[in-house]
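hey so u asked for the seq, here:
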Amino acid sequence: MLARSIHPEPPNDDLRWKPVIATMRRYGFAQHALIETLHTVQSTFGYQDEVAMRFVAECLRVPLSRVYGVATFYHFFQLKPPGQHTCVVCMGTACYIKGAAHLLEAMEDRYGIKPGETTPDGKISLLTARCLGSCGLAPAAVLDGNVEAKMTPPALLTDVDRMALSAQPVKTAEVSEEVMAS
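ran it, structure tokens below
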């Protein structure tokens, strides 16, 4: 008789499921591993889709509504695929006072996107952060993982235009060979 796995199989044969499963295994597939597992999904896939949330819910034996509630409560988790490049505008007090809202207006005027949206061509995602902790650099923005200081709308648009023309993708978390082998 074949032994049957007590944990569901991944939704598909994508190797990126290995670190997700490794995270759940590390915590014994316990319900308290939900946030850590969602962090792994986010860093591995770049966002939380319904397939991933259903898989995590089934593996950790938690209601899908709880997984969705956690994924939508925390600002870190994204429910849509990110663009090839990201622009994160800090909305902390210092950045807001020094013109962060004007940076968002410029992005909406040029690219037709609001915070949380991605351009139709999938090139640029616009996000906001509550605070980057870089108040002395206000207003600050993070472009593909690089903090840019004292941004003005024209400077931001120039940098984002340059980014959009680049073929380089957004920096992503690298998964170690050890995790992929587990």
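Helices lie at 17-26, 34-45, 50-60, 64-73, 93-97, 100-111, 153-165, 177-181. Confidence is low (pLDDT under 50) at residues 170-182.
lmk if thats what u needed
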